[in-house]
Amino acid sequence: MNSSLSITMIGTGYVGLVSGTSFAELGFQVTCVDIDAEKIRKLKEHGEVPIYEPGLEKIVRKNMEAGRLDFTTDLSTCVPSSDVVFIGVGTPQDEDGSADMKYVLQAAKDIAKHLQSYTVIVNKSTVPVGTGQRVEDTVREVNSTAEFDVVSNPEFLREGAAVKDFLEPDRVVVGVPNTKSQAVMVELYKPLTNQGAPLLITNRESSEIIKYAANAFLATKITFINEMAALCDVVGADIQDVSKGMGLDSRIGNKFLQPGPGYGGSCFPKDTNAIAKTAKDVGTRLPLVEATITSNQAVKKQMTDRIIQACSGNVSGKKIAILGLAFKAGTDDMRDASSLTVLPELNKQGANIYAYDPAAMPPAKELMPQLTYCKDMQSAVESADAVVILTEWEEFKDMDLEKLATAMKGNILIDLRNMISPNVAVEKGFEYSCIGRSFLGSNKSSGKNVAA
């Protein structure tokens, strides 16, 4: 389709690049802007995507070739002629747990300098409640005669499935101050609503809260099932069956009910901290969210202890193969990944860590240079005393256990994602440890789900 609306997307990070490219895919004329000249050069000249996201590079190049997608460092070349300008910059966590707004507010100042006609400015970044008003005030301070409205339009993109999430969304949420800006946003999202995507129109404050509330709820759901898994470990129940039994209840649903080494990534840790801080700032508390934050940190430490216990209480001098470093499969994102808590502690305890991840080794090397990084899974597990599955990549689920047993020196397999069939692992001769599962040969009396 062709659309008369012209879009500027400020920021070519995860949110900005995926959103800008996806709008181009929907038929809009889009210019993505970033202050990083080298990043823009690589995008503009080669369509080289700076992040790992399946399917993104393909549609970047497709829409560049079609003439719908361009990249620049100069706002003056695109903002004056744009109908909609998105702010898609980072909002990293500040020292007090709040979202650092300096990049958002700087973008607002920069936009203000180039406004020439009525423009809808959209906060796409994850921002605390009240940011819409702050951006509006900032623009007016710089350009008091500008004609504009500020809208909230949070993203709900899962890393590893972001392109699909944008083009086939569960919902589109838009917080508007008036009917004029609402009409623009309705027009902007027509390609998706015409395909059945639900569009929720609300005020800015509600829209800003929705994003944080959704992430806090999902983080709480993950933390809850991890606590249930810990209980299952002690009493001999199977968390897989418990999760299934819970998920069959339509009020609960089956998603985010898989136990693991705690949540991480760019959203859940930052957003739970930010909404808890916002609540304190306005004189109230979110004790459930605060407990979720505390419990999740405890889970990561428990995973370290679990690995040490599975290695008979001592990892010193042992070769431990780590399969997976990113916070989840399908991404190279290392932000708040469980590996950043678990692996330095194992290394401190004297373990020799040999790590492999299909995508995340370059950023992991910068964060944990003390580890040994392997080119493939086979290199990592060769002569290992123990193997730990830390991230749920499909290739780990499908690995040949007989081949693994032959390659290893020891026989300890620690599955922190419950990817391997416990009974099969035991049959192949592994001392198998997982999270909250009851299986043939598990030592229930000890309270630890370990089989020999």
The share of residues in helices is 40-55%
- Examine the coordinates and then state which fold CATH places here, giving the name of the CATH topology of the largest domain: Rossmann fold
Shape: elongated
How many domains? The number is: 2
Largest sheet: 7 strands, mixed
- Coarse structural class: alpha/beta
Structure description:
With 452 residues, the chain is an alpha/beta fold. The protein folds into 2 domains: 6-202, 3-Layer(aba) Sandwich (Rossmann fold); 217-451, 3-Layer(aba) Sandwich (Rossmann fold), CATH 3.40.50.720. It has helices at residues 14-25, 37-46, 56-65, 102-112, 131-142, 162-167, 179-188, 190-193, 204-235, 239-247, 268-281, 287-310, 339-348, 361-367, 377-381, 394-397, 401-407, 422-427, and strands spanning 6-10, 29-33, 69-72, 84-87, 119-123, 148-152, 172-175, 199-202, 319-323, 352-356, 372-373, 386-389, 412-415, 431-433, 450-451. The strands form 3 sheets. A 7-stranded mixed β-sheet has the order 11-10-9-12-13-14-15. Strands 3-2-1-4-5-6 form a 6-stranded parallel β-sheet, sandwiched between helices. Strands 7-8 form a two-stranded parallel sheet. Strand 10, helix 14 and strand 11 (372-373) form a beta-alpha-beta unit. Helix 9 packs parallel to helix 12 and helix 11 packs antiparallel against helix 12 (287-310). The radius of gyration is 24 Å and the shape is elongated.
List keywords for this structure.
alpha/beta; 452 residues; 18 helices; Rossmann fold; elongated
Give a brief outline of the structure:
The chain has 452 residues and is an alpha/beta fold. Helix content is 43%, strand content 13%. Helix 1 packs across helix 3, helix 4 runs parallel beside helix 5 and helix 9 packs parallel to helix 12.
